[in-house]
Amino acid sequence: MTNTIFNNLPNKEGYFGQYGGVHLDSPKLQQELAKLNDFYQKIKDDHEFINELKYIRKHFQGRPTPISYARNLSEKIAGARIYLKREDLNHTGAHKLNHCMGEALLAKKMGKKKLIAETGAGQHGVAIATAAAYFALECEVHMGEIDIVKQRPNVQKMEILGAKVIPVTFGGRSLKEAVDSAFASYLQEAETALYTIGSVVGPHPFPQMVRNFQSIVGLEAREQFLEITNGKLPDYVIACVGGGSNAIGIFKAFIEDEDVNLVGVEPLGKMKNAKQNIIGEHAATILFGEKASAQGFSSLFLLDDKGQPAPVHSVSSGLDYPGVGPEHALLHETGRATYVGINDKDCLSAFFELSKLEGIIPALESSHAVAHAIKLAPSIPDKNILVNLSGRGDKDLDFVLGNC
Asked: What predicted TM-score, i.e. pTM, was given to this entire model?
């Protein structure tokens, strides 16, 4: 398989190789997603739609976001040079608004009146609430009870923006259950509402839609990096992976460049290393997952002994999901991308290191990617690492300061 095959995926049925598709029991939901897919495939290349989205990105989101050279961090490590794609400077503080504004614009074009979403760390929730306010749409955000406590600042932001936050109190009370709850709500209102999924997961066309909206990150980064380095591409592109939206967004522009190493960083949670799979202590899906169908699509999932999605853990609420986007599963299968793990301890260490050395407080999700860059850099002197700093850490301060 050559790398160029990724340009033609997903296929018409929504598959990336053997992963993806639509696996739903509800005929009504299948019908609504088919309508959504038909509409999206027609409008995604429409000049009016593209130009309106470009206007929003420039004049509302503040794009393009810059690339910053982490000079102090790089000099302390004395290895590779570390650069940061600053999605923390995107409006609302993370990459999530890239696809939320696209999905909300799509909903408006379809005549929908309401946006329904799930959120883990709250960044997607804040972004979709922001998009709903911009387009004068109703907004309902489902969030696990555990995450509501951990991410109180983002809950407050969602409510200020006019969104209704629905606490999810069943199961693990985190991101997986929030997805289940949001889908159940969408099923009841599918004719007038749009489910705006928060990552490159779920049934087709969501993985394709979110990837395409997030690809602006990679397109910008490629052009910026070539300018900064006088025509050189990064040797490594590193991004954290939960569902995988920020990673796919930056990977997309470099997939055909075989000399660019793509590295996804998963949460090892409480585990010291990746030598043993301790169910419930991590959320490293690609490292320990199995092929299965869940939540409307086929991909790699962390499963319990009954074959159901397993309980997961991560210090970062946005990464504690037991599945991964189908395109990531294929990138892993083909070897085009490498996936590694970073535990909570190293994540928190990187959080403080970047903050103190560079004056940039990263989200705990992004801190996983920073942590791997810190570990990798000493072994590859004179190389260039580009980290997708997918969000800022304002939302995490109360939790970090209260638990560290």
From this structure: 0.95
